[in-house]
Amino acid sequence: MPVSVLMSDFDLPTRSASGFLLRYIAPRVEPVQLLSFLARRLPFRLSAPQSDIIIGVGHGDKDSFTGQNESVILEVGKYNPREVKGKVIKLLSCQTGVALGPDLIKNGAKAFLGYKDDYVWVMDADLASTPWADELAGTCLLPVVDGLNALLDGKTAEEAFEIEREGYLKNAAAEEDDLIKSCLEFNYDNAVLLGDPAARVRRRPNITIPLPPPPILLPV
Amino acid sequence: MANNEWEKVKEALRKPATPQAMKEAAQAFAQYEKASLGKANSRPTLVNLGRGTGYPHAVPVDKIPGELATNPQFYNLMKKIVTKEKS
Fold this sequence. Notes:
Distance between the termini of chain B: 28 Å
Number of strands of chain A: 9
Oligomer: heterodimer
Order of helices and strands of chain A: EHEHEEEEHEEHHHE
Shape of chain B: globular
Number of domains of chain B: 1
Radius of gyration of chain A: 16 Å
Structural class of chain A: alpha/beta
Largest interface: A-B, 38 and 29 residues
CATH architecture of chain A: 3-Layer(aba) Sandwich
Radius of gyration of chain B: 12 Å
Number of domains of chain A: 1
Order of helices and strands of chain B: HHHEEHH
CATH class of chain A: Alpha Beta
Number of helices of chain B: 5
Strand order of the largest sheet of chain B: 1-2
Strand content of chain A: 15-25%
C-alpha cells in the first residue's frame, strides 16, 4: 500500500521542511512521492485513496492545506471523503488543526496530526540547496521526522505524537539560543492529535541509506 | 548577555501592537540579535508555513527588527512565540 507524501518546495520554509522528509522519510516509503510541481490537487486525488497514510508539507491555514505554489490540496468541504477515509494524516503546515483537521476526522480519517497555530522554526538560508544538512532547522524538524518514523515503524498515532513532542522538549532544554528555544516551545504547545490515538499504519522497513540525496538544484 | 537581552525582547512584546510598542520591540530585538544568532551562523532566517497571514514566510533574523517595527501581524506572531500570550 503506497504512502502519499506531499513535499512542496517553492520557497525557503517548504524547501527546508521537504528537504528533511526527502532525506529521512522518502527513502523508506513506496514511490508515490508528490515532490515539487507534483504536489498538487490532481496527483493527490489520484494517489490518496490507495494510501493508508498521508504526509504533507506545505503552507496552510485554518481551513486549507496547500502544495506547490500554494495550490489548494485539501480544503474544508471541498474534497471527496474517499481521499481521507481510514487514513492517518500528518500535515506539517500552519493552523490546519483548527478546522481542517476536525473536518478530515469527521469525513472518516482515522487520526490527524497537525498544529493549531503557525509552525515556526529558524533555518539557515545558505543551506537551502542541502536543507537536510541544516542543524538550525533540524532542531525543530528532526522531532517531526522522529514522529513520522515512529508511525512508519508501526507505532500508534499517540506514540508518534508523543515522540515528536518529547523531541521538542528535549531540544528546547539543550538549546542555548532563546529564539530557537521559543520556536520549539511554541510548536510543542500547538501540536495536536485528533481522532483515534490507537490508529496505526502498515509497518514499513527501516532503511538506512548510505548517502544523502543529491542537492536540490532549483534556484532559491 | 544574550539572556538579558532576550528578557528585554519578552518585556517589550508583552505590550499591545501600538507603533511605540513595535518600535521598542524592534530595538530590543536588534540588541538581542547582535549578541546571539548572527555571529555563529551564516544566514539564520525565521520561517513559517502560514498562508494569507499578512507577514512573510521567511524573515532573516537580522531583518526581524524592521518587520517588528512596521508589521503589526508579524509583531503579534512574535508576541505569541516569545511570550506565549495570544494576541
